[in-house]
Design a protein that fits this description.
By secondary structure, this protein is an all-alpha fold. It has helices at about 5-25, 35-40, 45-50, 55-70, 75, 85-105, 110-135, 140-165, 170-185. Helix 6 packs across helix 9 (about 170-185) and helix 7 crosses helix 8. The radius of gyration is 19 Å and the shape is globular. Keywords: DNA-binding.
Length: about 190
Amino acid sequence: MVNQEDPRVLRTRQLIRTAFRDLLQRKGFDAITIKDIAQEATINRATFYAHFEDKYALLDEVTEQAFHERIPEQVVNAEEFTNDICDQLIIMTHQYIIDFYQICRIDSNPMAKLVDDKIKKMLQQTIESIFMKGDTCHGADIHHIKIMAAMTGSAIYGAAHYWLNAGENNRPDVLVDVARPYVMKGLGLENP
């Protein structure tokens, strides 16, 4: 097992992630082999396997890292689910989906499903964290908070994904204007 804190390990993992991202842009996920990743990262296959089980584990880590890098600090530190926080989550999710579907050439339904499921899960966790810090859920128990976070995350993700497929990528402001009122009303947080 490799020491995850060792600077050499961190550098190697970054080389692998960067090589993978570059290959995704050029070849698409299905066409990428471990040999391709290793060559691009200038490592051998055994080194790749010392860090990742397979390209799906690498995809999972790259997806998660890219999502966390995009979360605005205001959202991370939010103690209540406000209109502004909702707007930021909608825009962030929309842009993240655009990047993955257009820049990374998602070329297979199984890969798209993996990425979609991962994004939904991370979005839900982010929203759940905000709910747990504040009184957004009006004293609801953890089970109800998780359900509300799942529904809120699904609504945001669904709207952003639809917007991508509808070809409205250059108008995230309109997406926010359409989606936010429904999300906030569903939480009972709409403005009078």
